[in-house]
Amino acid sequence: MREAAGYAPAVSERTKVLVIGGGFGGLFCARRLGRLDVDVTLLDRAACHVFQPLLYQCATGTLSIGQISRSLREELEQYRNVRALLGEAVDLDPDERVVTARRPDESMFTVDYDVLILAAGMQQSYFGKPEFAQFAPGMKTLDDALSIRRRLFCAFEIAETLPPGPERDSWLTFVVAGGGPTGVELAGQIREITTRALANQFHSIEPTEARVLLFDGGERVLAGFSPRLAVKATRTLEELGVELHMGVHVTDVLSDKVTVSPKDGGPDEHYAARTALWTAGVEAVPFARRFAEVLDVESDRAGRMAVEPDLSVPGHPEIFVIGDLVGRDRLPGVAENAMQGGMHAAACVRRDLEGKKRKPYRYRDLGSAAYISRGHALLEAGPIQLAGFLGWVGWGVIHIAFLTGVQNRVSTLATWLMTIARASRTDRTFLLGSPIPPEDPYTWPTEASAPRHAMPKAEDVAS
């Protein structure tokens, strides 16, 4: 690989930097670029930054949407050289340095760039079986969280109307596929809901008898944590009543049952369950796949790309990849890596403007945390390993610190303090929706397909 080198943009006008993705990497990058003498465009398919580590708390009724998200325009309004655009990147012309994006009404527009920073992140992976998504939503977006909330609380409502028997039992059985942090957090929260929030609110059913089944192909949950903490997590989950099934893969998901196959080749097992949640894997978003194809970037099975030590694309020093999409040095797919990558890319732009040599990216591991239930969480940072109440306090401090906006921090902290004293969940509201949704031209298509050939340029919003 070549040595990291500076890229000299045209000097006839201010450098135009395009950041694709408003997650942790894109937001932190845009903030840093907001202090430089450049013009920055932040393009995202959502109009807000979402604090993904707390999505499961929105899904399970603890926090509201507003507490874990913030408008990108509001977040960036103090940076006069940064503008946010709503659109989904779908194509790239590296020769013309133009990105084509789609508006929510499916019309197209283009954005020029001198420097491009890809921070589009990952989406849920169903390992070649996208049909599972219909019955087992993932946990990546606000829409996912609201879908899970609706399925979760509606299951209890339906069970309340059924007589005792297998059908009622299937509505009171919840399956979580994936034993990583998100899967563990969801499973723990569902059991906490059944034993605390809903325990005394129904007449025909006993929510405490609801089953929560967690399936994972590994030998233990939370494989990214130390074995000691993983054992503590296992013990806590079992005490809550979560049924752990390790060493199995979920091989089929239908509306009323889930099929799992043991890794050792034993017979398939079938579980009657009306609610299944998927947290088992991730893969690159469609534009990232198109990006790698156009630039001929080597990528792995999940779509993570081989980049230079400074996170630039081989042969294209003006293009960076940050966050989950980076496929070098075994960088973890966590928020902290995305934040640091975003700040590093901004630093590279600054050094280019100053005529200095870029530095290679060095990730500093600040630790990992996972919430299980009230008073039980894990925190691992170097030699520090905390579990139980101390881990719970540390987890809360970290998440409050990284929430965007002072108002969100204050309201989230107040909500958490209230849940300590009371068992209720304040944001359990859900809408049933319609089986035939009304026509809405301002909603992203369900299966947006990226174009495979160059498109005619639409109105150039960057001009």
Automatic annotation (TrEMBL):
Record key words, sorted: FAD, Flavoprotein, NAD, Oxidoreductase
GO MF terms held by the record: NADH dehydrogenase (quinone) (non-electrogenic) activity
Entry annotated with the keyword Oxidoreductase: yes
Pfam families registered for this protein in UniProt: Pyr_redox_2
Enzyme class: oxidoreductase
Catalysed conversion reaction: a quinone + NADH + H(+) = a quinol + NAD(+)
Region (Disordered): 441-463
EC id: 1.6.5.9
Residue ranges annotated for the FAD/NAD(P)-binding domain, each copy included: 16-342
InterPro entries reported for this sequence: FAD/NAD-bd_sf, FAD/NAD-binding_dom, NDH-2
Protein family: Belongs to the NADH dehydrogenase family.
Protein name (record): NADH:ubiquinone reductase (non-electrogenic)
Protein source organism: [Mycobacterium] manitobense
Lineage of producing organism: Bacteria, Bacillati, Actinomycetota, Actinomycetes, Mycobacteriales
